[in-house]
Amino acid sequence: MSTLELFDAARARLADAPREALGELVVPRRILGVARAPRVERRGAAWHLGVLLLTDDAVLATGDIVRARQEARRGYAAESQRQRAELAAAARRGGFAEGETVHLGWRVLQPGAVDAGGESGPLAALDGVASVRWSAAGGLMPLQAYLTERVALLLDPPGGA
Question: Where along the chain do its domains lie?
Answer without folding.
Answer: 3-155
